[in-house]
Design goal:
The complex is a heterodimer of chains A (278) and B (151).
Chain A: H1 19-51, H2 54-70, H3 77-88, E1 99-103, E2 110-113, E3 117-121, H4 122-127, H5 131-146, H6 149-167, H7 172-208, H8 216-224, H9 240-253
Parallel strand pairs in A: 1-3
Antiparallel strand pairs in A: 2-3
Helix pairs in contact in A: 1-6, 1-7, 3-5, 5-7, 6-7, 7-9, 8-9
Chain B: H1 2-35, E1 41-42, E2 53-66, H2 69-81, H3 86-105, E3 112-126, E4 132-148
Parallel strand pairs in B: 1-3
Antiparallel strand pairs in B: 2-4, 3-4
Helix pairs in contact in B: 1-2, 1-3
Classes of the chains: A mainly alpha (278), B alpha+beta (151).
Chain lengths: 278, 151
């Protein structure tokens, strides 16, 4: 027998198709699966949240929210509470007892605490030009309570945490799962904020008969910090420009008008004209 | 998100440098296989009885190849779905061929290498729950190099 040496076909022992294409297809399938899971958890949580009464939400978080509000004692708290109560009179669908307080902070912000607390920073109140603007900010936070965003966020977090634990923290899949979920949550958060803006617009119109002052806060934020390219996709809130455009679009659609603004209460003015610090 | 950017950067670097290294290695393998074509590697029960064996000795070739980040990532995603692990196949092929070439290089004047045994061993670290993270692959080829008397 004579052996005739030859060079074998080089690609006999490994796949001929592109590994890059294969990876892209598998990643696409994985991300699609994660998106489906996220959608399912979102709809499930949205449905379950409608079954939980607002009073139950208050009972669950009552101790933590009262503790947090207690930390923020401010002489102008009753003024902010009065503005909140005036807005609540137009929103009988909110049965959750809401309380407002002023937070000493150098940045203009408002936040809704699970259980019925609304915090508004001193800086926001000082920069506000009218009572209408403050009412809009507070009504926006009311919108989060009305639309059960806290409960839904909590429910989604529990489901997604369970899935993350099942996948494993150190696995390569979790390195795709976590950022993908984060991006989806940011997108969902932006939608929540847009929904709260729409709700606030209706409340503002019911309180004053018009929507003057609705975009003042956002216009000020926009002029202070112009958006960077791509920032909108990585932010929990829509860009100020997008929010302003949406408010104006909704206002036009619903036939709302902008009229004269109500002056801001004197005790919410900056320390130069009034002593704010306790 | 910074972790995502880091992963994407590592995957990109692994893809570029891994592909460059692989192409270079395949070119080298083809060239050296052509040079050593005259030394067959076969399995036999008995040596050629018509020829006088001058020398018969054990020869070994060994190589350790690292997995680039791109292939490791691609392999882990495939691991989730199951199926053909294409990301590691070319690595195995290169490791096997390189080990055989190094084995032949131990006895460049031999006429034949018989009864070659090839062993592959993954190198890496054990993760939790008995999972193993492969970072490199070692391949060892061993056989008997036979040199016949010149006719």
């Amino acid at each position: 027998m004579k052996a005739t040496p030859t060079i074998p076909d080089e690609q006999v022992n490994y796949a001929k198709h592109s590994i890059t294409l294969e990876l892209l297809m598998l990643l696409g399938a994985l991300i699609f699966g994660i998106w489906i899971v996220f959608l399912f958890s979102t709809y499930l949580v949205a449905y379950v949240s409608t079954l939980i009464p607002q009073d139950a939400e208050h009972r669950i978080f009552a101790s933590s929210v009262s503790g947090q509000l207690e930390m923020h004692k401010h002489p102008a708290n009753p003024t902010v509470q009065r503005i909140l109560d005036k807005a609540l009179q137009t929103a009988p669908e909110i049965t959750l007892p809401l309380k407002a307080a002023i937070m000493h902070a150098p940045f203009p912000q408002a936040m809704a605490l699970p259980g019925g607390g609304i915090l508004v920073t001193e800086q926001l109140l000082q920069e506000a030009q009218s009572e209408n603007e403050i009412t809009w900010v507070i009504a926006h936070e009311m919108g989060h309570f009305r639309l059960r965003h806290h409960l839904q966020g909590l429910g989604r977090a529990v489901i997604l945490m369970g899935i993350s634990l099942a996948i494993g923290v150190e696995s390569s899949i979790s390195r795709i799962f976590s950022p993908t979920i984060q991006l989806l949550r940011l997108q969902h958060s932006r939608q929540d904020e847009a929904d709260a803006d729409a709700y606030a617009l209706d409340v503002l119109n019911k309180v004053y008969g018009h929507i003057g002052g609705a975009t003042a806060f956002l216009e000020r934020q926009q002029s202070k910090a112009p958006a960077l390219p791509g920032e909108g996709y990585l932010s929990s809130h829509p860009l100020s420009s997008d929010r302003i455009a949406q408010i104006r679009r909704l206002g036009n659609l619903r036939g709302y008008v902008e009229l004269d603004l109500v002056a801001k209460p004197a005790d919410l003015n900056p320390p130069a004209t009034n002593q704010l610090s306790p | 998100m910074s972790e995502l950017y880091t992963i994407l950067l590592l995957i990109g670097a692994g893809y570029i440098f891994g592909n460059i290294g692989e192409r270079r290695h395949f070119r080298s393998l083809r060239a050296r296989e052509a040079e050593t074509l005259r030394i067959p590697t076969i399995d036999i029960d008995v040596v050629d009885q018509a020829r006088v064996v001058v020398e018969a000795r054990l020869v070994c070739g060994q190589v350790t190849l690292a997995v680039d980040y791109f292939r490791r990532f691609a392999g882990s995603i495939r691991n989730f779905f199951g199926g053909q692990m294409a990301a590691y196949e070319s690595l195995l092929d290169r490791a096997r061929r390189e080990a055989i070439l190094r084995m032949k290089a131990e006895a460049p004047d031999c006429d034949i290498v018989v009864n070659v045994h090839i062993d592959a061993c993954p190198i890496g670290k054990e993760k939790s729950k008995g999972r193993f993270k492969v970072t490199a692959l070692e391949c060892i080829a061993s056989g008997t190099a036979i040199r016949y008397a010149q006719k």
